[in-house]
Each structure stands twice: as C-alpha cells, then as structure tokens.
C-alpha cells in the first residue's frame, strides 16, 4: 500500500506542478482574463480553443487532440473546470477557469495542501531569507530551512500570532511528502531542525508530460499484495482522479426555436456558436454531461415521507435577459445541478442539490428534468418549491 500511495502522490504532484506552470504562463500571456457573455461577467477565465492554439504554438503538445486529452487530465484532477461545470474539456469556444483563480480548489483536500505548499514556498523564497543553503553532515542542501524560522515567518505574514495552525500546516505538508526533514529522521517540529521542499516547483515542464503521468497513475491503482490477493485502492478516496461519467439521460435540452432555450433559460450561460458575444467569446451547445452533484440517489418516496429529513423552501424567481440562472438534471425527482452565481436563482437563494417539488403550484416530483424544463421555459416568473436537507436549510 505504501508503494502505491507513493506512486499516486508522485504522479499527482507532477501533474499539479505542470498545471500550475501552465496557469502562470497563460496569465503572463494574457490568456486568462475577465470576459463577458451577454450581460454576465466571468472573472479570470480562458477560452478553450484559444488555449489550445497557444499550447501548440509553445510546443506544449503536438496536436489538438493531445491538448484536449492533457487538459482533461487537469480537469479530472481538480485544477481546471468549466465556469458553470457543464462541460468536460473540449476544443470549443467554451470558458474554463483554473480552480486556484476562484478558490474552488478548496473542495479538494489534496489540492489544498499542494497550493498551501506552493504559497508557503513562494513567500519564503521571495520575501525572506528563510530559504537558504545548509551544510549538514557534509552534504549541501539548497533552499532548505529551519522549522522554527519557517513558522516565525509564516505567522508574521499571517499577522495573527497563532503558531499552532501554522505548525499543523507544516506537519500536513510533511505527511503528504511535500516537505521533508533533510535526512528523513524527524517529523516537522517548531525547532532548529532542517527541512526542505520535496517538490521542485521550478522544474520546466511540458503539458504533454501529464499524459504519461496519468497513465502511470492508472497502472498503479491495482496491484497484487505479497499474499497473492489483489489489492485495489479505494477509488472514492480520490474522486477527482476518476473519469467523469457520461449521463446522457440527465441532459437538459430543448429545441433552440423554443423561448427561451433551456440551456439559456435555465443556466443563462450556453448558446449556439453563432450567438457570439461582442468580444467573440461564446458557449457551444451541450455535449457530454458532467458528473451529478448528488451525494447519493434519492427517491420520490423518500422525499414524500413525512419523517424524512427534508424541508420545503419556496423561491420566487424572475427571468432576466439570460434566463432563470439554473440547470436541472435527473428524473423523478429532478434536482438543481448548477446555479449561476450571478443569476436570478442565486439571488433568490436557490442552491445545488435541491430537489424540485412544485413549479407554480404544480407537483413535479415525478417528472423528469425535460418536462420540468419545458414547464419553466413557458414562464417569465416562477414560484419554485424545493426540498432541502434539514441541516442545509438551517444554514440558508
């Protein structure tokens, strides 16, 4: 198990370092910037097709197909995502964003630790003398640091004077093999012990390299133990490394001739390629479906049970120029898959994973999302009752 964990970490970290270098390079080249689609502004995003053009120009990849495969690996590892999480990575005029640029990386514990390591490394390297060369038992260690010096510096940078959380951060970094004691003899301690970063954040990389790393990870997930029994890692422990499932039964589509189209009326974000915004940015029509946001399947019977932990909330939502601002998925019951953070639904209080109970008084629990979408598309204002898990409702 230890060897496989090391292989997984090694490849995941390698993919991360490449993704972070690509992010910084794209920022420097002006590919990542605020963009508008109709009346909506999307901060710090890039257009997939433009990014692929740049990747080819910079020799990061050898073909557009290779670029899509490599960027999809970054998406599966939680480093990029479609701005409203409606698409996998495609060679189209779609908007994507690095999760570090909108703080959504914080949903992934592995990425939280990695980015914390990057942030600490950059601060220690550029703003202090904490990182320096050490001779220890006749060996030169470059960019190493004393544990207590690092804690002093980060605490001073944070400005709250609390050493405990910073020490805990560094211990987490060591346990994840992001830093290490120079001779591997000690865990992290707020003391005069010498540590160094295990990862080379400055190593020049090509995006193409993630294809080999992802292949190595796939080959390392299943091995045979010394007892001869096949030992399979728990895939659920790292869900962001799995391929996103294709759930065509849950797609929300309506003929573009209808007013307004469902992807426009519901999410307020997608349109045909011909309907370009003023700056040339557009969203292509929906292809493969994203992974469901539901934690587990829920039945209508469970929702209707009077002793179930679900409570009702009603929202009054007025359609704007872009639609109602949410996307439905599923069937009997259907649920909220995506909410545009700037749309009318978000303003009213709607959130993802809420089950649609009624629309303008009509019970829709046994309808699929297409039927509910058609019902909503005929309206300019709706009263929607949703079923919300009780603990979530208390936080609203």
From TrEMBL:
What Pfam families does the annotation carry?
Answer: DEP (PF00610), PDZ_6 (PF17820)
Span-the-membrane segments of this chain are none
Name the GO terms of the biological process aspect. Answer: G protein-coupled receptor signaling pathway; intracellular signal transduction; regulation of signaling
GO cellular-component term (any)? plasma membrane
Task: Point to the regions of Polar residues compositional bias.
Answer: 248-258
PDZ domain location:
314-376
* Stretch list, region Disordered: 216-285
Q: What residues does the DEP domain cover?
A: 20-100, 141-199
Q: Give one GO molecular function term.
A: GTPase activator activity
Q: Which InterPro entries match?
A: DEP_dom (IPR000591), mTOR-Rac_regulators (IPR051832), PDZ (IPR001478), PDZ_6 (IPR041489), PDZ_sf (IPR036034), WH-like_DNA-bd_sf (IPR036388), WH_DNA-bd_sf (IPR036390)
Superkingdom of the organism of origin: Eukaryota
Q: What protein is this chain from? A: DEP domain-containing mTOR-interacting protein-like isoform X1
């Amino acid at each position: 198990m230890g060897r496989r964990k090391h292989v997984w970490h090694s490849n995941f970290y390698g993919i991360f370092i490449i993704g972070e270098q690509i992010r910084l390079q794209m920022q420097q080249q002006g590919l990542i910037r605020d963009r508008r689609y109709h009346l909506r502004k999307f901060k710090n995003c890039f257009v997939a097709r433009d990014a692929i053009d740049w990747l080819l120009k910079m020799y990061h990849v050898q073909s557009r197909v290779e670029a899509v495969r490599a960027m999809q690996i970054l998406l599966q590892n939680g480093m990029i995502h479609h701005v409203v999480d409606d698409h996998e990575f495609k060679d189209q005029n779609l908007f994507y964003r690095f999760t570090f640029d909108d703080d959504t990386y914080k949903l992934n514990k592995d990425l939280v630790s990695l980015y914390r390591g990057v942030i600490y490394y950059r601060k220690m390297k550029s703003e202090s003398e904490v990182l320096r060369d050490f001779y220890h038992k006749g060996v030169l260690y470059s960019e190493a640091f004393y544990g207590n010096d690092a804690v002093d510096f980060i605490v001073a940078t944070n400005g709250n004077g609390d050493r405990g959380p910073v020490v805990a951060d560094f211990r987490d970094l060591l346990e994840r093999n992001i830093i290490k004691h120079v001779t591997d003899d000690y865990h992290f301690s707020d003391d005069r012990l010498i540590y160094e970063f295990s990862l080379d954040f400055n190593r020049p990389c090509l995006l193409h390299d993630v294809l080999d790393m992802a292949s190595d990870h796939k080959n390392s997930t299943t091995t045979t133990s010394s007892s001869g029994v096949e030992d399979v890692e728990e895939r659920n422990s790292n869900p962001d490394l799995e391929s996103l499932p294709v759930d065509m039964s849950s797609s929300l589509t309506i003929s573009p001739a209808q007013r307004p189209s469902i992807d426009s009326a519901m999410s307020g974000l997608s349109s045909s390629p011909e309907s370009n915004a003023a700056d040339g940015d557009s969203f292509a029509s929906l292809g493969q479906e994203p992974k469901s946001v539901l934690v587990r399947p829920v039945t209508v019977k469970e929702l209707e049970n009077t002793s179930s932990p679900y409570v009702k909330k009603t929202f009054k939502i007025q359609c704007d120029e872009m639609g109602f601002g949410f996307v439905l998925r599923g069937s009997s019951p259907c649920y909220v898959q995506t909410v545009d953070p700037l749309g009318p639904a978000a303003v009213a209080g709607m959130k993802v994973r809420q089950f649609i109970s009624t629309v303008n008084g009509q019970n829709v629990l046994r309808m699929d999302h297409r039927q509910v979408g058609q019902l909503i598309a005929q309206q300019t204002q709706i009263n929607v009752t949703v079923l919300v898990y009780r603990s979530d409702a208390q936080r609203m």
